[in-house]
Amino acid sequence: MAGFVAHDNEEVMSEINMVPFIDVMLVLLIVFIITVPVMKHAVNVELPKASNEKELIKPETVVLAVRADGSYFLGEHAVSDTELFQQLQADAAKEPQPDLHIRGDKDVRYERVAQAMAAAQQAGLKKIGFITEPRPATP
Fold it and tell me: Which of 27, 37, 104, 127 has its CB 3.0 to 4.6 Å from that of 66, i.e. a possible disulfide?
């Protein structure tokens, strides 16, 4: 720490120079004076109340099975292509909209699965998922 040397005696003065601290405090005061009015200019809105509880209502799921021969099953009932589209439209109109889970046979042509996905998209369904079975673990 730097000190002043007195002229009369050669002792070091151990006083703290306060001028740099005062300069810093004045700069901080000016910064706060400038920024506080900027923070106050905000539109008053009533914010919604939110909670972190889990949602208990789960959306319904519609299971569409595609057999190896290309036939469609909604749940347990066989449906034709036109009936599939009509049923998917009815499901898309529900609130909340159900999720569509597609179970495709491993031997089915990709074209039939793609047609089902296109019908779901045209019907207005937003959430489409695929159901698969995991491979067995190899030792």
Answer: 104
